[in-house]
């Protein structure tokens, strides 16, 4: 009987190995027989949901399903298509295109595509449908032609910035927020210490919202060939139902999807086919695959110690300091790398983790590797800390950046537990053993130490930022104070160097590397993306790391987000209040972004 069980287990093990080998073999066979690119085509893109900035390669996403199309994928596909004679036009269904920075990155790519003489068409069943469709319409206005269905509308109504305040709710539950911040504009803690906007937060939020609003007005006016005053007047009159939107010159026609596709088929000519943008990129190949090597390093998500990983609750990512620092070391040590492009899309996080990344960026520059930062949706607080030492910083006009400041503290929950009939009796071994305890408020001595730490971190942040940006400390501190800025306003104050996205940053990287403007370059992601076999091996418990750099350059896989959507809904409420920072490390360089509804 014992031999039977041993044989059965061995048989099951052999079947498992054969299954894995078979799956990998089928994937390799499938990849070798991919269809080609049609000789006459119209590119098609569906933007019903925002595009992710970057997807970690620590799951089966690319093996057993489509890896989500990223923002960079679309930008590079349109760049490639602009010089591809097989591509005749682009059609995009616009829904929820994402943040202001993402919309501007897409607008830039569409305008560059159009500059090659090719037509770009945007359509929607409606922009908003009784809701706010300003962001979606802002993107659509960059296209040659904009259509909606006869039953659709254009919800061009402006934008709203919304911030929750929960101080009184905490008080009702018996929770006291003991927090401190540097300086008056560091608003991350206000959601649980205040009941409404204070003067400083109102001033900063108004300035931020006004800057974004003006960018939208300018973009729509240019795209639709209207004056800015006309656009402002239209916004105050919105929303517009179909015929009224047409009369106001906000759209070029009232058409259904089939009518739009028929029109584009005629434009493209005989035998024209439609092809999704991601499929085109997969089959035609990316641009920037030959020539001098420029490294691309992603710093996406909240900055924390350890490895980069997916956050299964938020659906986003964590910028692991170990992973990003190791990527910098790898790129620095590679003799083929002429410059480093660092894509930062982060609201900040841990002070020490941010400093780990900052140090490796500095070491790369000291080794002779120019570093150009390109900012995504946000690069604020710790997200600015990791970026500030670069040779050049590029941001979109709508990027949220700055927030040069710090906060820290704790929630004291003793009263809450007392209401529930629970009492914690504490024995301390060390005068400050209860320093971080949520059962006790700070003693006067502990509070003084706490405030001293905030002063030291703020001085360190502002001093390093002033040195990195080559400006007097007093000048830097005048635009710091924890205040957030749009990229456009940050450039005026010397916190960033140029406005734009990937294309602008890549041009600056070439210049810094002393390459010709039109020189071909190979854009190489660091750490090197893993292939299916490596991902499979790691999920089965095998590691190919030879040393700590190899180990740190990896990333941790997250739980399948599909299984956690209901939990995420609760998580997102907490995130609005700044309560759900993963790990909630102390001494936070963090800037919860204002929720902009547009």
Automatic annotation (TrEMBL):
Localization, UniProt: Membrane
Transmembrane intervals: none
Organism: Corallococcus soli
Key words, A-Z: Hydrolase, Membrane, Protease, Serine protease
Family stated for the protein in its record: Belongs to the peptidase S49 family.
NCBIfam families membership: SppA_67K, SppA_dom
Domain Peptidase S49: 113-268, 364-515
KW Aminoacyl-tRNA synthetase (keyword) present: no
Protein name: Signal peptide peptidase SppA
Domain of life from the UniProt record: Bacteria
Major localization listed first in the record, in broad terms: membrane
């Amino acid at each position: 009987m014992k031999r039977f069980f041993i044989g059965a287990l061995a048989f099951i093990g052999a079947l498992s190995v054969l299954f894995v080998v078979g799956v990998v073999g089928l994937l390799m066979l499938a990849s070798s027989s991919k269809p080609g690119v049609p000789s006459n085509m119209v590119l098609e893109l569906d933007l019903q949901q925002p595009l992710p900035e970057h997807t970690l390669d620590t799951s089966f996403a690319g093996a057993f399903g489509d890896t989500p199309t990223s923002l960079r994928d679309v930008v590079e596909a349109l760049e490639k298509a602009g010089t591809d004679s097989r591509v005749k036009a682009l059609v995009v269904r616009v829904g929820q295109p994402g943040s202001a920075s993402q919309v501007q990155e897409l607008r830039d790519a569409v305008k560059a595509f159009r500059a090659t003489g090719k037509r770009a068409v945007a359509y929607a069943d409606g922009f908003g449908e009784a809701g706010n469709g300003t962001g979606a319409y802002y993107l659509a206005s960059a296209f040659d032609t904009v259509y909606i269905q006869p039953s659709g509308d254009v919800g061009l109504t402006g934008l709203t910035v919304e911030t929750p305040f929960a101080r009184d709710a905490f008080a009702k539950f018996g929770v006291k927020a003991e927090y401190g911040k540097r300086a008056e504009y560091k608003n991350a803690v206000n959601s649980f210490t205040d009941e409404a906007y204070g003067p400083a937060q109102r001033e900063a939020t108004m300035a931020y919202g006004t800057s974004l609003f003006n960018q939208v007005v300018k973009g729509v006016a240019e795209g639709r060939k209207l004056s800015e005053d006309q656009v402002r007047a239209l916004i105050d009159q919105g929303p517009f139902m179909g015929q009224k939107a047409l009369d106001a010159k906000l759209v070029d026609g009232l058409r259904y999807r089939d009518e739009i596709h028929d029109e584009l088929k005629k434009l493209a000519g005989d035998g024209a086919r439609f092809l999704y943008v991601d499929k085109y990129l997969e089959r035609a190949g990316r641009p920037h695959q030959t020539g001098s090597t420029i490294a691309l390093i992603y710093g996406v998500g909240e900055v924390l110690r350890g490895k980069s990983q997916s956050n299964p609750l938020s659906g986003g990512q964590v910028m692991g300091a170990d992973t990003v620092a190791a990527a910098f070391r790898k790129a620095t040590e590679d003799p083929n790398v002429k410059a480093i492009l660092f894509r930062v899309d982060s609201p900040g996080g841990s002070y020490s983790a941010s400093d780990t990344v900052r140090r490796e960026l500095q070491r790369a520059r000291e080794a002779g590797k120019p570093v150009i930062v390109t900012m995504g949706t946000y690069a604020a607080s710790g997200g600015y800390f990791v970026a500030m030492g670069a040779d050049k910083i590029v941001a979109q006009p709508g990027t949220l950046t700055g927030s040069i400041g710090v906060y820290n503290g704790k929630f004291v929950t003793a009263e809450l537990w007392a209401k529930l009939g629970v009492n914690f009796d504490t024995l301390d071994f060390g005068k400050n053993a209860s320093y971080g305890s949520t059962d006790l408020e700070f003693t006067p001595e502990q509070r003084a130490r706490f405030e001293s730490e905030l002063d030291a971190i703020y001085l360190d942040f502002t001093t390093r930022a002033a040195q990195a940006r080559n400006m007097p400390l007093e000048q830097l501190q005048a635009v710091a104070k924890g205040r957030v800025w749009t990229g456009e306003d940050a450039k005026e104050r010397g916190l960033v160097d140029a406005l734009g996205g990937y294309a602008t940053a890549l041009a600056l990287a070439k210049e810094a590397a002393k390459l010709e403007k039109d020189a071909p370059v190979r854009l190489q992601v660091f750490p090197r993306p893993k292939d299916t076999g490596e991902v499979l091996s790691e999920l089965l418990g095998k590691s190919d790391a030879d040393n700590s750099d190899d180990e740190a350059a990896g990333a941790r896989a997250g739980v399948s987000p599909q299984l956690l959507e209901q939990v995420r809904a609760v998580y997102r409420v907490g995130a609005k209040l700044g309560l759900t920072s993963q790990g909630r490390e102390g001494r936070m360089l963090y800037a919860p972004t204002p929720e902009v509804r547009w």
